[in-house]
Each structure stands twice: as C-alpha cells, then as structure tokens.
Amino acid sequence: MTQPSAAPVHAHPAGGIPKTRELPRSASCRGSSYRPPAGALPSLVFDADKQSFTAPGGEETAGLVQQMDRPLSVTFQLTRDCNFSCAYCSEPPGITTRTYPEVLAMLDKLAGMRRIILSGGEPMRYTHFWDVLEYCQPRFEQVVLSTNASMITRDGAARLRELVDYIDITVDGPRGPHDRIRGNYDMVIRGLRRVAEEGIPLSVICVYMGSNKRKIHYICQTGDIFDAKKVKILTTIPKGYSRNLFEDFTTGEELNELERFLKTERQACGWRPRITIADWIKIGAGHAILIEPDGRTVASPVWQKPDCIDPFADLHAQTVQQVWACYPYKGAHLDKYLERTMVVLD
Ligand code: SF4
C-alpha cells in the first residue's frame, strides 16, 4: 500500500461516530522480546504516542549516524500486487516477489533493526503475510503495517492486535473525493473501524492533491474520530502513476499556509491526533529506504533520478551492513525519522 505509503476513516454512511469497544489502550498491543544490538542505535527511544523516534540526549544527527551499522527503519514491500488502483500510486505492479525462503532470508538480514514497515502493493495480498508477521516478532522492535485496510476482517483485526505495533491507513477525503482518487471508500472505512475497535494504534495518512486539498479538515476530523495517534499529510512524488500528477506537487508557501490553517483548526476543533506535514523539499533527498519485492533496495524520493528513486543496493545479494554502508542519504534518513525535518503540530 503506497504512495509514499498511506489510507482513512469514518465510513459510516450516516456519518456517526463508530462504536469503539472499550479496550485498554497501551502504547502497543504487541509484546516483544526484542533487544536492540549495538549498531541499531539503542540510545534512541521509540515514543509510541508520537509514533516517532526521539533522541533523549538531543544528540546531533551526524554523531548518531556514526554509531549506526544498519538503517533505523525500512519499508519492506512484500508484494506489488494490489486490489486498488489509486491515481497517485507510486508502487504499481510489475515486480515479482522472491520465493518465500528468500523473503525470510532478507528478513533475517534485517533482524535487529529498530522498525520494519510491511508495505506493498497491498501487503495483505501476499500469500505468506501472516507467517511473515509471526516471523518478524522477535526480530524487530517496531513492526508496522501500511495497508489500504480493505482486507482487514474482524478476526484479522484481532490477530493484528497481537502482531503489529501500529497500522498506517490512507484516507484521501470524504466518500466523493476519496473514491475519485482512490476508490473503495466504504471498504477502507470498514477496515479502519475494525482496527480502531481492536484498540490497535493507528495513523491516518492523506496524500495532499489538487482534488482533495479543500478536504483536509475532514481528514483531521476522521483521525480524531478513530483515535489516531497521528494524521500524516504527504505530498505527491513523481514516481509510478504519480508521474502524471506534476501539477499536484506542492511545497513552499502553500504548505506554510496549510500549517498555519491546521494549527488554528487543531486548537479550535480540539483534535487529539498529532498532525505532521511532509514537505519533501525540506526533508531532503532519499530519506526512505524501500526494499522492493525482489530485494532491490532504493532510496526515495530522489528528484534528480529517473522515477524519483536511487537504486543503491540489493538486500537479496548483500548484508544489511553493506546496504547501509553504501546508502548515500543517512542524514536525511535520521532527520526524517526523528521528525527533525517534518512540520509537526502537537
Ligand atoms: S494502488 Fe494499492 S499500493 Fe498503490 S497506493 Fe493504492 S492501495 Fe497503495
């Protein structure tokens, strides 16, 4: 599930507040025996309420990079297969997943890393999705699912509660705009509601485009209704199908104006989720490391490269230390995941 990755809320045909079972809300529902090894920056803390890493000692990025022998976080694409066809999809079909033993071997190489984000395509379409989730349990501190939510059944949501730390779901507006951009509004909201009813921490993501930029208020309200920890507003990346959406790319003063508007509205409306706005120009090139289904490892977004990605390694053929050693964007990676280059409203 991707555009940079993302999905929504409040599906009710009647627009009411979803019935949410009263479950104890912990930082994470998942118990993990994970202990970070030396090269995985154990000095950083993952703040589950903020859904972000923090450096309690306030260490500078360059010093932290020096201590690392592997990424802080990667997005691992289990499949490029997807049951949606979003207008802005940055990760369309066309790459074949390696065999199941090869996928497990790549997960073994990443073991010890702080966070893995299982993505796609739609990761729940992957044949061995549940086995992979189980396999990740002792290997990563944070196991995150980025899904379009359409395949989350009630039983599946209960199972996810034990296996993931949080879930990212994209909602691109109320039914009309959402369906024009993404489709399947009711399926997405149904999945979102099931996640919320299980008390699984979640984030609502929105890809900010010309066709929904006047609906951002709705997205934030949706995040609040479903008790999201975060509402993440992303802008388009000229990659995959988004190459056709150049006119939707936004930066600079328009995002500054959005920040001022949402700051005022967050307070006036009493929204509880933190709101982040990703301005790719401020974040800088290559912050995200994507492991594609065949193991090719790319940095994204990198504007000056074809398809906005920089393929710099191959996890299938290399160790994670080798991958990290040749990664050219280490500072941007750390800064992004420490929220040092994000606009944050909290
Ligand atoms: S088509 Fe699928 S993978 Fe692409 S953005 Fe939509 S849900 Fe995500």
Summary?
The chain has about 350 residues and is α/β, with parallel strands linked by helices. Helices cover about 30% and strands about 20% of the residues.
Main attributes?
two-stranded antiparallel sheet, 346 residues, alpha/beta, TIM Barrel, 13 strands, binds iron/sulfur cluster, disordered N terminus, 11-stranded mixed sheet, globular
SSE blueprint and pairings:
Layout: E1 45-47, E2 52-54, H1 61-66, E3 73-77, H2 100-110, E4 115-119, H3 129-136, E5 142-147, H4 154-163, E6 166-170, H5 175-181, H6 185-197, E7 202-208, H7 216-225, E8 230-235, H8 253-269, E9 274-277, H9 280-283, E10 288-291, E11 296-300, E12 310-314, H10 320-325, H11 330-337, E13 343-345
Parallel strand pairs: 3-4, 3-10, 4-5, 5-6, 6-7, 7-8, 8-9
Antiparallel strand pairs: 1-2, 9-13, 10-11, 11-12
Bound molecules: iron/sulfur cluster (SF4).
Characterise this structure.
This protein is of the alpha/beta class and 346 residues long. The protein has an eleven-stranded mixed sheet with strand order 12-11-10-3-4-5-6-7-8-9-13. It contains eleven helices and 13 strands. Helix content is 29%, strand content 18%. The protein has one domain: Aldolase class I (TIM Barrel, Alpha-Beta Barrel). Strand 10 and strand 11 form a beta hairpin. It binds iron/sulfur cluster.
